[in-house]
Input
Amino acid sequence: MSGKTCSNCRMCARIYRKFYMYSKYKLLYCTHAQAITKPNDTCGQWQRKPCRPDIDLSPQRFDAAVKDIERIKQILKE
Output
C-alpha cells in the first residue's frame, strides 16, 4: 500500500554509500527539512514525484548519437 511517505516524496532523495562499490542506503535525505529520514516517515510538505519525461526517439537524436559514436571510434584508434 502506497501513501504519502518519504519514499515517494519529491523532496526526498536516495542516499548512496560506498563500501566496495556504491549501493543504496536504506535512509533518505529530505531537502525540505535538511535531515536524514526513514522511508516510512511523513510530513506536511509532501509533494508527488514528477512523472518520467517522454523519451526522445527523434531521428535527429539518433543522428547525433551515430556521430558521437564515430567520434569515439576515431579517438580510440589514435
Notes: The CA atoms of residues 50 and 66 lie 31 Å apart. Residues 1-48 form one domain. The first strand starts at residue 12 and ends at 18. The chain has a mean pLDDT of 85.
